[in-house]
Inverse folding.
């Protein structure tokens, strides 16, 4: 344990009190001491007993061991985070929550030291120049997402759990009850290492995106001590870069195209094939060619396709729509049409998942995946006028799916 003088300990007590947003009067009352005792204690003129330090640690939501850390910085981790949110109102509502998780992260580091476990420095840092325009930010985020997927050997597959992936890279990650305006935050401090919190009250798909967004900050913005993601900062180019990373990391272009191809919704409207004939002399052009024009409506991406795509990659319906637009798979008119179907898409998602955006899968059924597959085929066949409304109703009954709802959805495509 390092040699901590009375003056150093007094300063750390003062920083801990400020981080917990306690006045000297409030701390004194909690300890049953006069305010002058706290003044003397923080000035280094009064020794601190072990019992007093334990009670101070409890009031400041931190461990006793944190007062004796070998490394120290200009400010406490919690102070650093709060300084990054100076523009937010009602910060008192979440100070206790932030203090709780900073303490948990710090205790985790202490336990690793007790167990002689190797302390991870986190994933590699992708140093990028600060973007000066939107497309530069987008290109940087997409490039790093592809490099990180390659490093993690993820291929084009969906990521099962973003929090687990982040934790596996030596970053503390958790959901927390943050302010409504805050989707997540990234922090870096010598006492905790790297940490990520996302808003626990947000829908599941949004939380996955927020985890990926904050992971981008851990990869590219590690020079920052804290970064808080709020709606008001969405035009900030570092936030744009993190969003581009999250979109590409969660929904790689190759995976999106492969999924749509499996549904016959990808590729050119005119398919052309040339069959090579080894018996033809070089320089001649007599190989056999074939051409087939796909029906325009057959290639159209519907809201049901988008629901399936969003569920496959674990993102929101809107996030999936924006991803298709960014990949130029749908044009502006098609994008707006898909956006207009958001409410009916959410209804379909809830039925297929067996639950809403929150809570466990209480009502899910073991055959829901085959139900999803057959529903897609039924709605697509109805859209192309291959089956009747009566047949659609029969299929709904077979799948134990609300008949009126299925007909309504099929007609809405």
């Amino acid at each position: 344990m390092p040699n901590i003088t009375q003056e150093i300990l007094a300063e750390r007590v003062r920083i801990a009190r400020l981080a917990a947003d306690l006045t000297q009067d409030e701390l004194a009352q909690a300890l049953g001491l006069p305010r002058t005792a706290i003044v003397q204690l923080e000035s280094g003129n009064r020794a601190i007993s072990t019992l007093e330090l334990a009670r101070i640690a409890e009031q400041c939501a931190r461990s006793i061991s944190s007062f004796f850390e070998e490394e120290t910085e200009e400010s406490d981790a919690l102070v650093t985070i709060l300084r990054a949110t100076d523009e937010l109102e009602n910060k008192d509502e979440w100070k206790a929550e932030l203090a709780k998780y900073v303490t948990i992260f710090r205790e985790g580091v202490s336990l690793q030291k007790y167990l002689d476990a190797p302390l991870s420095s986190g994933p590699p840092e992708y140093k990028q120049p600060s973007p000066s325009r939107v497309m530069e930010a987008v290109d940087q985020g997409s490039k790093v997402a592809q490099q990180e997927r390659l490093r993690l050997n993820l291929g084009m597959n969906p990521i099962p759990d973003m929090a687990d992936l982040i934790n596996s890279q030596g970053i503390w990650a958790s959901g927390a009850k943050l302010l409504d305006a805050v989707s997540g935050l990234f922090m870096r401090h010598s006492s905790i290492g790297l940490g990520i919190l996302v808003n626990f009250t947000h829908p599941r798909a949004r939380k996955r995106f927020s985890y990926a967004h904050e992971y981008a900050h851990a990869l590219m913005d590690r020079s920052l001590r804290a970064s808080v993601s709020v709606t008001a900062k969405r035009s900030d180019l570092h936030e744009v870069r993190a969003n581009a990373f999250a979109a590409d990391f969660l929904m790689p272009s190759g995976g999106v195209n492969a999924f749509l191809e499996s549904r016959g919704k990808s590729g050119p409207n005119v398919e052309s094939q040339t069959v090579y004939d080894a018996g033809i002399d070089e320089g001649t052009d007599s190989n056999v060619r074939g051409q087939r024009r796909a029906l325009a409506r057959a290639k159209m991406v519907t809201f049901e396709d988008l629901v399936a795509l969003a569920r496959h990659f674990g993102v929101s319906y809107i996030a999936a729509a924006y991803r298709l637009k960014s990949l130029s798979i749908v044009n502006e008119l098609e994008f707006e049409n898909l956006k207009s179907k958001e409410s009916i898409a959410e209804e379909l998602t809830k039925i297929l998942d067996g639950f809403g955006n929150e809570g466990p899968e209480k009502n899910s059924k073991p055959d829901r995946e085959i139900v999803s597959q057959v529903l897609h085929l039924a709605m697509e066949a109805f859209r192309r006028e291959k089956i009747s409304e009566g047949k659609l109703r029969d299929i709904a009954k077979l799948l134990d799916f609300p008949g009126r709802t299925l007909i309504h959805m099929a007609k809405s495509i």
About this structure: Residues 92-114 form the longest helix (23 residues). Strands lie at 172-176, 182-189, 193-199, 226-230, 270-275, 288-293. Residues 268-274, 290-295, 355-365 have pLDDT under 50 and may be disordered.
